């Protein structure tokens, strides 16, 4: 655990020093006022703590902070603040974490990309009417698993399991939304594999204009006109993105219903994504470039 903390801190600290992030306040959009009190801890220290939480396997951040950080790892954080103070500072970490991921951890397009979305429920369906933390921000959505209240994480990965792009939307945004897919597919080429939720003639034509062919499974009443044999074979490999979503939720813990502020929800999401990208081994599938070019 100590070795993992040191490695994570070195990467993050080098990034913060290069951009001089400690001297800059990164508030969330819509919050123009700067805090009057300067944080006692360095930005790199706080970023390391929230990322390592998702690497540690702990299920509760409070237990992790009070028992592991304040106990076993206390010597590595001499300027450690109290738990309530750290929770108030967490909202400042979202943008630096996103910048860190964009600068260091995003993968490259290999010609075979996979797209999918996963739900991020923020409360139980029975408590929707009493929920106040995300009132006006979250929305009801429906998937094959049923109704939920919260957000959707739209994800694009390559065949090495590396994240190419991600986008957070309300829960009622469709997977094949043209604007969402346009942002996610920027800079991609080759083949893009998705499930039946991405079936859309307009989306297919929009992606084809940027040299990106959308390949999905067909419905029972559709004729197989555009899916070639090697593309159909690659569709069976689409389960890789399901594995990535599973790791993000069950290992990196990007989804839980205990959030007490939208700021900390965003920080938890960004830290979970960074923790996943720092994993030495990710789900992957072999892709023969000669097959893609066929």
Summarize it:
The protein is α/β, with parallel strands linked by helices. It has helices at 2-19, 43-56, 61-72, 83-89, 94-105, 178-184, 201-208, 229-235, 239-250, 262-277, 289-292; strands at residues 112-121, 139-143, 146-158, 163-170, 190-194, 212-216.
What can you tell me about this protein's structure?
The protein is α/β, with parallel strands linked by helices and 294 residues long. The chain folds into two domains: 2-104, no CATH class; 108-255, Ribonuclease H-like superfamily/Ribonuclease H (Nucleotidyltransferase, domain 5, 2-Layer Sandwich), CATH 3.30.420.10. 40% of the residues lie in helices and 16% in strands. It has eleven helices and six strands. A hairpin with a 4-residue loop joins β3 and β4 (163-170). The mean pLDDT is 87.
Topology of this structure?
Blueprint: H1 2-19, H2 43-56, H3 61-72, H4 83-89, H5 94-105, E1 112-121, E2 139-143, E3 146-158, E4 163-170, H6 178-184, E5 190-194, H7 201-208, E6 212-216, H8 229-235, H9 239-250, H10 262-277, H11 289-292
Parallel strand pairs: 1-5, 5-6
Antiparallel strand pairs: 1-3, 2-3, 3-4
Q: Regions with pLDDT < 50 over 5+ consecutive residues?
A: none
Count of discrete alpha- or pi-helical segments spanning 4 or more residues: 11
Provide the domain count.
2
Write down how many β-strands occur, each being a DSSP E stretch of 2 or more residues.
6
Q: State the CATH topology of the largest domain.
A: Nucleotidyltransferase, domain 5
Q: Tell me, rounded to a whole number, the average pLDDT.
A: 87
For the biggest sheet, the summary is:
6 strands, mixed
CATH C-level label of the largest domain: Alpha Beta
Helix content: 25-40%
Shape: globular
Order of helices and strands: HHHHHEEEEHEHEHHHH
Task: Please report which band the strand proportion falls in: under 5%, 5-15%, 15-25%, 25-35%, 35-45% or over 45%.
Answer: 15-25%
CATH architecture of the largest domain: 2-Layer Sandwich
Distance between the termini: 46 Å
